[in-house]
## 1
Amino acid sequence: MRILVVAYDYPPSRSPRALRWRYLTRELALLGHEVDVLVPDLGDPGVELPQAPGRVVVHPAFPGPFGWLVGRANRNRSKCDQCRAEPSMAAARLNWRGRIVDVAKRLAGLVLFPDVRAEWTPWARRALRRILVEAAPDVVVTSHEPASTLPLGMLARRLGFVWVADLGDPICAAYTPRRWRRRAWALEARVSALADRVLVTNEATRTLLVERHGQDRRRCKVLPNGYDDRRARDEWGEGDAVSFDADRLELVYAGRLYGYRDPVPLLRAVAASDGVRLTLVVPDPPPTDDAAAIAATAGGRLRVLGPLPHARVLAMLERADVLVNLGDRDQPVRTPAKLFEYFGIERPILHVHSDGADAAAGLLHGLRRGWSCEDDAEALAGLLADLRRRKDEGALHRGLVLGPLADYAHSSLGCRLEGLLREVADAGRHQSHRPAGTAPDRAG
């Protein structure tokens, strides 16, 4: 098949959406398919693929003026990240140029839906039309977020191409600005009605979309996030820059601290727990004054590291006692992508959530992979004390199943995606909704 993926987030971005499609495009290439990827030009795409029967070609398009500035800043920052090891718990400060750009982006985001990243759309639309003519893909896939990729999928659909919308999560979510909620809801309804298939990452999100828009469940498929099962452990490195203490319960959180993930209850619990240490591997320190105040009195129980090479992070996770996952506040249907990355590490997981109906907590319990706890400092401190005692007794893993989870390996997810794309592409050819002469009739 010939497949076109439209993704705002793609390597070198480290976002969960970028990693999802970096690995899925790799798997499609390994299965022999030809993949084109339309992305904003935010720097070197940095796509590394093993020897494969197929191929991946990245098509960068001008991202708009703010995107160009951000890409330039990211390239400069990547040079500094190699030297940054121990940032302060205080919020990172931008220089005056960064502050001006940040204010300008915020102002532009007041008029651009869903945010400033929509400025890419005019250049992306022109590039999309060109690629559709030159590559004549059997299927077009758009990766949300941001929602600005979805009108590009609608354009491809109007031109007669098969369109799969990888939503992952709802478009209208708890973190959607109030001024955009009506528009986000309407876009979500249009995508549900127009896309040949909609992909989401868990069953709770599929149920939510069906209830909101009356979508046929058969057209809404679950394709979860996953972990890289092709990287050999001897490639992970030694992670010798970070030491662990056998006499402590060592917790590690590796990821971003978005505004809808509150680490403060966990930080308070750790600061009050003897024999426990939490290491945060985050691009930026926790942004609140509360976090800084807790760190000042934690007595070495909190350790904050800046961004590290992915291989070293994996090596660190492999040596931790417990991996920490923070749930999304007020968004129980979402399952953070970090949880699935942890499934590739044979370590127990502690999931902190704010809702009793949290989908990630249900998944974790069903798989017997770890523990979940509400985001209450006292409850978390009690659980940490129990886990510390279990470690001392050599029983930390008792009752858990920590082996490989093949259903969430990217090799398995790539095969599932291939079957879905082949099915929808074949159905599109039979329906003949593409204008005659716009694409050759490929069998595979």
## 2
Amino acid sequence: MRIIDLHISDELRIKSKLGEHGSCSYILYSDELCNLLHRRFGRHNLCLKVFKSEATDITSHTWHPRKSQLLLDCTKIQNLFALRGLAPFVYDIALVNDHNWAQVTDYVRGVPPPTSSASYVDVRKEFSITVNWDMNEKNWVDGWLVDFGSFYWKDKGRARYIEDMKERVNKYASWGSNPLPYQSAFGLPSQRDMAHRVEKMKLDDVDFTGKTVLDFGCSLGLFCQDALARGAKRAVGIERRTEAIDIAYEVANWHGWWNLDFLCLKLPRERGRIAEIIGLDKFDVTYALSVDRQIGYDVWMAEMCDDIFYLEGHVPDKEHTYRKRLEEDFSTVEFLGVTRDHGPRPLFRCGK
């Protein structure tokens, strides 16, 4: 995960502080603050849930100063409830004015929750979550569960949930006839070598700061996580199966990479839904890695790219397989050689 430093003027803080607060936190929300958060995180209608206790080491900071539930664990648990439509998502944890931790989260007052087939009890059982005390009406806002200070994983529950994630990585993140997951998580063997691909793609040469990123055929979403680690403000991954995007989100959530979206779409037919859901029709950095056989490279991919486009082909493709098409759509086309972790695959970096 990354630590976000966020500085807010006293004037903006006073304007944004609402009467909505509990024993541990209070809400900052205003049009001006929304604009600031939109510029930083690429999302609308965000607020800050600011924790009153002075910030300590984020790995040991608790939701409630007199309780043992870790803020990081509570946030991960909240996002699992959000994944099932019962809570607002948290997109980052920020250090506000060098003094207080805050969740960057959806503002849900007056916003009806999505229809969900899951119940509060269902989600607890699904993800092996324990609650210290019973919920009451103060823990909910307009149908959304917003107070997670009593939620945690017992040691056995944590181990059980990690093992469950590993099983679903192996089950839903494989591709083709190879039974291994396409990308690796939790140190599991996989078909692709992320470190090798990152080196061949020369990603260290690219400044991701404040960029938006789109990954066609994202698998477990490691390139989305990597983009956030490099400073991107928002990353979006596309896959074809609901189970695949669920486990991709859970893996990212577990490791604290939160400002991303995984969409279940059938491309190219449903490509228009990306802009409808995300609110962006162009992305600064776009990946189309070994997806030509599944969705095909076409000009619409180039049109969704605003700056840098990566294309990785398949075995037995060569440089000439793609160069002419890419030169029609981009002003610069750089052949980076071939990746060799899954057979020789031609690799390009293109620019607008």
## 3
Amino acid sequence: MNKIAALVSGGVDSSVALANLVLAGYQPTAFYLKIWLEDELAYLGECPWQEDLSYVKAVCEKLGVPLEIVSLQRAYWDEVVTYTIAQIKAGCTPNPDIMCNTRVKFGAFLKHIGDIYDKVATGHYAQVLTQDGLAVLKTSHDPIKDQTYFLSQLTQAQLQKALFPIGHLTKKEVRALAHMYDLPNKDRKDSQGICFLGKIKFSDFVKHHVGIKIGPFVEYETGKQVGTHEGVWFYTIGQRQGIGLSGGPWYVVKKSLDDNVVFISRSYYASDKQRKSVHVRDFNWISGIAPAGAKFSVKLRHGPELVPGELRYIADRGIITLIADDQGVAPGQFAAFYDGDICLGSAVIVDE
């Protein structure tokens, strides 16, 4: 029987995943990854990692599963936080969750455990199939919770090690199982936001590491300044919250890093804001080989929406042509490619 390392966070999803493994007859070892950066982020307040760990210990005790705590703080800083800061400084919109999966959970942690364990189980809403000897990433039964987008940068070697015990379930079913198993965290609310920040505001993190630089809000249609902001790096394309101007709703439609200008509009869905082409580079094909075809379904962000598109290559980048318009294309984010319910991989969105 496979030896399984189960990553647990204190949340319901990873706890039910662990319980499912036990009930299936496995004898997993639970691992809690301590990534809270006490020295680097202490100035912002406290992270609830102690609370998370208390739930982890209670769940493991109830299930009779041994628990190990692994400190990956330095790896997380080097692989995820520095990436996040660099992307922000470049005026892009980072995706720390994608980097956490490929560089920490299935990166640094895999290196930490070496060859002792055959599989690493997590509470992701995703599934792994085997086709022609290759591991294939399949979407979850819950299209709203599906997390294949966040796993789309995994390599074939990483996916071969992955096990997702709740990928065939919906969120409602997972919560029901938590109650049926009477887990200590059965009624605990789902966490939101970036994992290394806990309850800390992302804007406070950005302000500390990148600083403030006053610049203009400019109305996209008229070119008139309608307000000021504290730095272009606080905003992402499509953003509505946090602009703080009357007469809205206002949306961010464009940014200029060089001039520190944020262009905003009250007509976000107008035809002059629509985009059907997306430029990408730095491809990761999970199989290790680029697909022969050029037509895919594409996700430009986490969520259930899949848009048919066609990919063609020009020099060092690809251009995705979508059949439907999308205003919220944010450089720095990822475009994930799908063939039906199979996630083939992803690439980084860049400016034209």
## 4
Amino acid sequence: MSTNDESRRVELLCDRALVGLSLDEAAELDALLGADGDTDAFDLAAAAIDLGCAGGELTPMPAALRAKIAVPRVAPAPVLPAAEAAPRAVAPVVPIARSRTLAWTGWLAAAACLALAAWSWSSRPEVPPVAVAPAPLPSAHPVTPRPPTVADERAALLLRARDAVRVEWSATKDAGARGASGDVVWSNREQRGYMRFHGLGPNDPRLTQYQLWIFDKGRDDRYPVDGGVFDVDPATGDTIVAITAKLHVGQPALFAITVEPPGGVVVSKREHIVLTAAMSSTG
């Protein structure tokens, strides 16, 4: 905006605050204001002088200004999005007879206040809008995922593998099998399985370990597949063990648990068979 336009805008704002504007001047001021913000500083300055000098002999306040300050302020309407914003309307101002020369009374002080308001308003710095990032939502303490347990993996196999078969253990007459129970789960397609035991006699890993044998219909019964060694919780006798078959199992027929020296053996003498689980069918 040019300096002449700025001066003209300030002049019209001062006139509006002191004596009011004609319809043509109001339209001119509206065009000069454009999208500028609040310009009530001029009106408020004039109102403050009028109230401060109420005890003296002053020229009566213009009707247009008195009407502005007599109406209580209301909450501003919500700001609409740019696409929906209504065109800025200018309140009609009743044209009044006026003189450019201010009365030599308290209105001279009002003019001085208006000049100060005009200088403050016209020289205000242009502050670019600052993007304010939304405050971060409070978050709970990060939780480290718990690695799956053997029990979780067993349950997942039962849900995932359609050919998974679960068979109950049967205890033999061996003393170590007294009161023992549980089951074996096996998926032949995944060559994966788990054994679950309850009440199985605790072992001393320094002396003995339990070992699994998988009898395959396609193999000689003298050489079952080694399924790995394991220990039992000495406090409860309960445990879940993942099967680690050393060879591919074609068609499992029987799972057997024996008691062997630490680390297991290649070929079991089958002197201490404590549990067996016969597979009736596989997928």
